[in-house]
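If you are new to this repository, start here. Below is one unmodified record pulled from the training split, so you can see the exact layout before writing a loader.
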Amino acid sequence: MTATMATPGRLSVVATPIGNLDDITLRALRTLAEADLILAEDTRHTRKLLSHHGITTRQRSYHAHSGEAAVQRALGDLESGLHLALVTDAGTPLLSDPGATLVAAARQRGLRVDAVPGPCAAIAALSIAGLPFDSFRFVGFAPRTGARRRRWLEDIASRPDASVFYESPRRLGATLKDLSAELAGERRLAVCRELTKLHEEVVTGFADELAECYAEGVRGEITVVVGAGPVRAACSETETIALDEAIAARLSQGDSARNIARELAAERGLPRRRVYAAVQAQMRAAEEEE
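And here is the target side for that same chain:
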């Protein structure tokens, strides 16, 4: 009697709706129904989608905090011949969502990985924002504080292509305010809220206008598009760190934000609004730590 080796399975990376449950491809529905197991970021959330379309495939939780054991378990399933479908709560997996580690590990082992494309909030926002772009970058979620946030803001302002990012509704106003200091009225933005849902909304304007509009916060899922603009020189990482250190020293001496912005901008040849935004960012970070 000759033993038969199991045929390696496959991993399907399946895009799911970002709001409207009917925004899913026929191929995605077939893949989810035929898979042996669905790896879901939140099984309760995905169950709503599956129930809406009459799909009964079993699920297992797989999210950003699942750890190496979950990756190895999934790889074992694939190597035993199972067909796994990877989904996130909304949109295309791996775009500011978990799954990259598993996909990379599966490919390293020579396992089959299929793309089942579909909805993506970044692409949907670009399609209806009405802003100029010949090229664009997806830059994830805005860093919350520190030098990394400053570099992220400066990078958006320094590049001519459009940028798309996601933001928490609670932090939207602060991020728009910081962007206004970098962009200085040079480029228009679009705040796209609740895409494909009943209360879908797109509001366009300059960053300072939108910061004021959303100063009190807002509800829903947020995607922001920064339209294309002129080329600007970004501060180097060394310059950004030096500026942050100078600001921290002045703040520790009790100097006011306006004085710091005026004097450091003059010393370093930077726009005063940019330095003022950096001062405010450090002040907010200090308040959050208290």
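Two things worth knowing about this chain: The radius of gyration is 23 Å. The chain has a mean pLDDT of 90.
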